């Protein structure tokens, strides 16, 4: 029997194995006997996932967009062969319904409000979900991404039928080539070090800043709650792309059609802090573990150094970005014991070992992060090409030859007989 139109928004879940793990937005719980679903869902976007007993390893999840008002209902039934929750008829619902509850990442308190979740997925819309998932807003732990792998992990093999039919349609992000086609010399070097040009192209491919931010938030949810590796890689690539942009810090949209890079980076830093709050509150980070968090901290330190350089050149540049970065820096120092300003880090000092010996230690990797010491950029002076030009002109004036350049074998160059 279908529920009456006067009931609160309800998601019915049936045929779920006992003691399975179910997650709704930021919270999760073990299913009690006769569990039948969740009621009183607030309006907005929600993510629901299931880790069926007894394995509790593979997770599958789906998204719903609950409208305002009463009477909304949806029924999902667990299919053991597919290991997923699939749409089912509302006429067969039943069981015990649990009210919607959320555990706040900052305090651990439970509440019936969805404010913390809404903030985490503030840029996710129905259009974002349709673009990433297609008609069926669902995914699982093993779903691949149809975006080209730009980190060199592509084995060159054609995609399987499963990968072609069901994959995450993320926006391709190429971190190895961030300069325009045909760029050479200083232009290519600048765009390799400052990825603002590449960021603008990714924004165009995604459909704008809000769509890219929404895709990034979806990737975080899929990686953290479902353990999806492809989503984790996309999340990491977008972080690396945004935190290596210098020109975008002061870029503002105008008649030229460019994106407001300053406003985008402010939103990126604010969203990153909300994501780190979720990670800090959890016990396991999955693919967003210590190694990835260390990479994010390294990128943030480089980003902060760049902001200080911009402030030195012109204090009026990137004010909003610097302010948001300071909020993130203070939060990470307080909650994660992470220092983002290398000027505040002890580079060399002495410590006492368990045996009572005093030894000198030095922090490693700071020179590489700050591009100092042996990692400092080398300035190549201009070379006077006039002698080479004169010699080339003299050679060409002697007459043409059917073979302009004589290619010699490498063995002949090394052979003393030649």
UniProtKB/TrEMBL annotation:
<dbReference type="GO" id="GO:0000244">
    <property type="term" value="P:spliceosomal tri-snRNP complex assembly"/>
</dbReference>
<dbReference type="InterPro" id="IPR033647">
    <property type="entry name" value="Aar2_N"/>
</dbReference>
<feature type="domain" description="AAR2 N-terminal">
    <location>
        <begin position="9"/>
        <end position="133"/>
    </location>
</feature>
<feature type="region of interest" description="Disordered">
    <location>
        <begin position="140"/>
        <end position="163"/>
    </location>
</feature>
<protein>
    <submittedName>
        <fullName>AAR2 protein-domain-containing protein</fullName>
    </submittedName>
</protein>
<dbReference type="InterPro" id="IPR038516">
    <property type="entry name" value="AAR2_N_sf"/>
</dbReference>
<dbReference type="InterPro" id="IPR038514">
    <property type="entry name" value="AAR2_C_sf"/>
</dbReference>
<feature type="compositionally biased region" description="Acidic residues">
    <location>
        <begin position="407"/>
        <end position="418"/>
    </location>
</feature>
<dbReference type="InterPro" id="IPR007946">
    <property type="entry name" value="AAR2"/>
</dbReference>
<feature type="compositionally biased region" description="Low complexity">
    <location>
        <begin position="391"/>
        <end position="406"/>
    </location>
</feature>
<feature type="domain" description="AAR2 C-terminal">
    <location>
        <begin position="170"/>
        <end position="337"/>
    </location>
</feature>
<dbReference type="Pfam" id="PF05282">
    <property type="entry name" value="AAR2"/>
</dbReference>
<comment type="similarity">
    <text>Belongs to the AAR2 family.</text>
</comment>
<dbReference type="Pfam" id="PF20981">
    <property type="entry name" value="AAR2_1st"/>
</dbReference>
<dbReference type="InterPro" id="IPR033648">
    <property type="entry name" value="AAR2_C"/>
</dbReference>
<feature type="region of interest" description="Disordered">
    <location>
        <begin position="391"/>
        <end position="418"/>
    </location>
</feature>
